[in-house]
Amino acid sequence: MAENLTATEVARGFADVLNRVAYRRESFVIVRGQRPVAELRPVPMGTRLADLPALLAALPRLDDAGAFAADLEAARAELANQEPADPWAS
Question: Could you list the residue range(s) of the whole structural domain that residue 19 is in?
């Protein structure tokens, strides 16, 4: 629930109010003469669901999943046959 602040309180402590919005994710209703005139709240974070199709379209295509799986298995088999490297060796 948003806290009510007068326009004077906001003007006198603007940096503090802004920090509370930015870091504590608090919301405020700014009132002037007992009437609400504005709302100060954090900007929503993250990606909007409407942006999902464009995001998915921008990902690289994996046309041949079978070839990718075969490459992955070959790489795992090769790694399993190698001796672990000595991290202290120069």
Answer: 3-40
